[in-house]
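Quick one, tokens below:
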């Protein structure tokens, strides 16, 4: 630690010694004395001052011997000429109470914005695009020193580091030689802007990482010593230093050998200024400090103003950095070429109403600029003029005979050539010495108060009002631009301005040129006004008795609350257990509230409430919640949840829900109502009755189902059918209707009997309060005692053969049996279904009652034939109920017995061995196969054919039925071959009596069967 501290201490002492040496060294003659900065800059129209700035590039020259010799900067310029940026930017000077408008034109290649620390204004993150212009407005300026700089765009910090900053000075209205008040009066002033330069940043700003920022040069007003400019003053004078830290690092600025009074930080004056040897300013901070030059300071005295951290080097070399001097100029040797100074300026009276003369006094001194006698003094109004052309002043002692003279003049604002208007007028003065030198100008502001104060920032609270409370009026009276006199009175009128002094008086909060004015319009006065918009006209009076112009503020009277509509309760009706949703075990109430109600003034909706059954006093109901989270619009949707525990506690039946809203003026609107129905009674089936004729033969019938109340969820699955008798195939076709009744359409199927519709409770049927049919639980709402239909539908019982089968007959009969006596049966009611036959036809229908005989011609060929009944609705019973029920086809019958028509003679298909071959057996079997089933086969239908030595062969037996026979044969004795032949003797027939091979013996013989080899 010590090894580092001692070198630093030695370095600091060395630098202080060098500064001290510079302070006591002889200095060169100065060209001019320091003076105040201009009273204002830019352009003012009324209370609006407009400044134009261009963001552009520029070049900063570094101290001699620096490498590089200069760097590129980004900054501000007062002109549109490219590459003219200065460091710092132009100093902007405005007056208290003004509105400042800055038009920023962007000459850079990236977006930039503007920010003034300490002033309220927008935080502009988008800025002006390249070549674009943006206007920044700052209202009601207050005295102080402020820094303006690049704003918070994406590259704002880099732009500040590159030099985009400058100073704004706001002077107290009417007191240009004061910083904040009389205790801050000064003779001279200077701006000191501290900042740093890292050439690496300026060489490549886009690629530079600001975390690596390492300053090499430390600047006062864009210059490093020895290039800094001295601050010249005189002994005994007070110098206001406006310190601004526009850099990225903290800096502590001191004045060697003197203490100063710190008046403010960031434009905020201290109630009790403090003295300091050095004041540290953080990056972006400002301070106003007042330095008093000792009266005994000798000519040529210099007081160092420097960075007290002693980083007084330029890029680590030489002696430089933040260093300049407060300088008391030395006496000028040789010919006197400098005129006297002017000081001690006073005006009396000031302010003045302009109706009489104003006495102007000042002092002129040539002691520090040649020591010659004062020979003359003159003043100009508004701006300095040509030396010798001003209004002459006289020596107070009547003779110009000394190097120091008090001078005086009487300014008559009404004389020809002046005729000064109301407002602030700068009076410029300078003196002349006997060597003929005119000195530099000094000035003082003369305030001609001919007009009343401006009244602004008017407010009426509450606004809107219903007339039940006082309405507070407030505003700001400002005489700074029209005389800077104290505000002494204010008054207001309602709807029409009256004569000066005849209005309702207002309170003035302080004796000052700027004051707040307030009053309360009594509630009774407000209540007596009509609904609608009204104007309060307000103006103020200054200490000279001038009434200012009227300004007005609108206030509104609203005595009508908002309208309520769109009430919606969900779920409703409710059984006390039915929730809006699983997560909200409540009933939800929604409503819409709209302003205006019945009145002409549109207030915002402020609140809403509801009551259940009994309506209470306004504001005592249950509050509702705005859908968007805040009641603040002219139309608002609100909701609330009524807990199921509350709903369940309500008695069964209707309950009135009353809802209304409140507006921002405090008016409750009229109630709008809806009904919450509490229904805890389960629905039941009252009856199921026939809705069609009975008895019936119809294909469909309707049942009317009546419930005890309106129900939902009724469909075909909630019903079943109970048939009796021969009824089959009945089904539920549809369910229709709403409310308490349903119509159930039923297909009656086929057959006679009864048919009843029943309700089968599966818990899907509910009332509008979700009470389930019969109560929770399947089956407890069943209904099985409804009316039944008697179904009278004649049907075909059977269609059977009435003739032998199979048959070869040309005609056969069918017996058709009905379920009861029928009429209207004829051949058109039947059809034939055949296979293999040609020309089959129905020849006749006979019979009566419940049976009919149908004669059929079998046609030709072999095949099958079936008689079918085709229902064409002509067959009816004695009650005129149609076969199968009304509707063709529903009585069809196609499942009757079938005739087999066989006209083909049977044949022998084969005779094959059924035993091993060759054989030595005494008996063998032959299998005889016919083309179809035959009867009448015996041993007389066969013969044996032997060869060789065989003798004694015989047919022992014939067994089997159908199409196959087994013939057993005795092989006799000897050896040879044995064959079985069939000899047709017309005894073998099929089931239809067709003879083997056809009618006639021998035509069915079979002699080609297999042969046994007998050994």
């Amino acid at each position: 630690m010590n090894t580092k501290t001692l070198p630093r201490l030695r370095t600091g002492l060395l630098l202080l010694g060098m500064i001290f040496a510079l302070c006591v060294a002889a200095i060169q003659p100065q060209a001019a004395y320091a003076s105040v900065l201009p009273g204002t800059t830019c352009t003012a129209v009324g209370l609006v001052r407009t400044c134009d700035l261009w963001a552009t590039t520029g070049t900063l020259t570094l101290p001699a011997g620096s490498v590089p010799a200069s760097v590129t900067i980004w900054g501000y310029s007062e002109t549109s000429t490219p590459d003219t940026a200065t460091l710092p930017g132009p100093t902007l000077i405005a007056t208290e109470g003004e509105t400042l408008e800055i038009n920023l034109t962007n000459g850079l290649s990236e977006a930039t914005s503007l920010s003034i620390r300490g002033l309220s204004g927008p935080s502009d993150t988008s800025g002006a695009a390249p070549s674009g212009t943006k206007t920044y407005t700052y209202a009601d300026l207050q005295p102080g020193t402020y820094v303006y700089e690049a704003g918070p765009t994406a590259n704002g910090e880099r732009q500040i580091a590159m030099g985009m900053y400058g100073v704004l000075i706001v002077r107290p209205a009417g007191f240009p030689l004061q910083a904040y008040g009389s205790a801050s009066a000064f003779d001279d002033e200077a701006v000191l802007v501290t900042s740093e330069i890292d050439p690496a940043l300026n060489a490549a700003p886009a690629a530079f990482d600001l975390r690596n920022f390492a300053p090499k040069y430390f600047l006062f007003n864009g210059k490093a010593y020895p290039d800094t400019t001295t601050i010249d003053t005189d002994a005994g004078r007070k110098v206001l230093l406006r310190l601004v830290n526009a850099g990225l690092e903290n800096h502590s600025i001191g004045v060697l050998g003197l203490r100063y009074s710190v008046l403010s930080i960031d434009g905020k004056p201290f109630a009790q200024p403090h003295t300091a040897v050095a004041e540290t300013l953080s990056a972006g901070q400002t301070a106003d400090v007042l330095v008093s030059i000792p009266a005994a300071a000798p000519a040529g005295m210099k007081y160092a103003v420097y960075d007290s951290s002693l980083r007084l080097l330029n890029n680590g070399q030489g002696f430089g950095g933040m260093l300049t001097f407060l300088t008391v100029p030395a006496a000028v040797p040789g010919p006197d070429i400098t005129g006297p100074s002017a000081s001690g300026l006073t005006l009396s009276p000031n302010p003045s109403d302009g109706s009489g003369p104003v006495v102007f006094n000042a002092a002129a001194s040539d002691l520090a600029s040649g020591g010659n006698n004062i020979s003359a003094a003159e003043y100009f109004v508004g701006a300095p003029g040509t030396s010798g052309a001003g209004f002459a002043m006289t020596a107070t002692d009547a003779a110009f005979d000394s190097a120091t003279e008090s001078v005086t003049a009487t300014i008559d604002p009404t004389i020809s050539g002046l005729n000064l208007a109301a407002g602030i007028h700068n009076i410029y003065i300078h003196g002349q010495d006997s060597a003929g030198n005119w000195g530099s100008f000094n000035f003082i502001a003369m305030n001609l108060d001919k007009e009343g104060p401006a009244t602004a920032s008017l407010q009426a609270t509450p606004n809107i009002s219903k007339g039940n409370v006082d309405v507070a009026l407030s505003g700001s009276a400002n005489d700074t631009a029209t005389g800077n006199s104290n505000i002494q009175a204010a008054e207001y009128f309602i709807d029409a301005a009256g004569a000066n002094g005849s209005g309702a008086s207002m309170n003035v909060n302080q004796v000052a040129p700027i004051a707040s004015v307030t009053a309360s319009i009594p509630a009774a006065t407000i209540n007596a006004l009509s609904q609608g918009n009204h104007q309060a006209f307000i103006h103020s009076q200054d200490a000279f008795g001038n009434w200012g112009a009227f300004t007005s503020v609108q206030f509104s009277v609203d005595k009508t609350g908002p309208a309520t509509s769109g009430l919606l309760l969900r779920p409703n009706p409710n059984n006390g257990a039915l929730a809006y949703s699983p997560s909200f075990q409540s009933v939800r109430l929604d409503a819409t509230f709209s302003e205006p109600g019945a009145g002409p003034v549109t207030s915002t909706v402020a609140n809403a409430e509801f009551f259940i059954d009994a309506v209470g006093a306004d504001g005592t109901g249950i509050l509702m919640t705005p859908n968007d989270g805040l009641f603040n619009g002219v139309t608002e949707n609100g909701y609330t949840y009524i807990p199921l525990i509350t709903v369940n506690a309500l008695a069964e039946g209707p309950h009135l829900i009353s809802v209304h809203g409140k507006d921002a003026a405090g008016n409750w609107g009229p109630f709008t109502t809806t009904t919450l129905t509490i229904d805890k009674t389960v629905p039941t089936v009252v009856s199921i009755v026939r809705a069609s004729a009975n008895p019936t033969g119809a294909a469909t019938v309707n049942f009317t189902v009546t419930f005890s109340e309106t129900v939902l969820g009724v469909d075909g699955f909630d019903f079943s059918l109970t048939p009796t008798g021969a009824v089959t195939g009945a089904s539920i076709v549809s369910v229709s209707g709403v409310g308490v009744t349903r119509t159930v359409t039923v297909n009656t199927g086929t057959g006679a009997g009864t048919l009843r519709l029943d309700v089968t409770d599966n818990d899907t049927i509910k009332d509008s309060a979700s009470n389930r049919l019969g109560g929770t639980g399947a089956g407890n709402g069943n209904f099985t005692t409804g009316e039944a239909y008697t179904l009278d539908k004649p049907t075909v019982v059977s269609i059977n053969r009435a003739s032998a089968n199979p048959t070869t007959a040309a005609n056969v009969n069918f017996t058709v049996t009905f379920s009861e006596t029928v009429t209207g049966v004829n051949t058109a009611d039947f059809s034939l279904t055949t296979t293999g036959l040609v020309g089959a036809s129905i020849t006749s229908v006979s019979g009566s009652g419940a049976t009919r005989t149908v004669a059929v011609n079998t046609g030709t060929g072999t095949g099958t034939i079936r008689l079918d009944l085709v229902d064409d609705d002509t067959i009816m019973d004695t009650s005129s109920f149609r076969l199968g029920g009304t509707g063709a086809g529903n009585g069809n019958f196609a499942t009757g017995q079938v005739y087999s028509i066989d006209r083909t003679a049977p044949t022998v298909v084969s005779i094959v061995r059924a035993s091993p071959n060759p054989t030595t057996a005494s008996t063998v079997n032959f299998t005889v196969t016919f083309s179809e089933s035959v009867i009448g086969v015996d041993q007389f239908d066969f013969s044996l054919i032997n060869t060789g030595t065989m003798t004694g062969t015989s047919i022992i037996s014939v067994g089997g039925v159908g199409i196959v026979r087994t013939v057993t044969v005795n092989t006799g004795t000897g050896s040879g071959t044995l064959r079985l032949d069939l000899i047709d003797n017309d005894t073998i027939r099929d089931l239809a009596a067709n003879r083997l091979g056809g009618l006639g013996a021998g035509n069915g013989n079979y002699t080609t069967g297999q042969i046994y080899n007998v050994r």
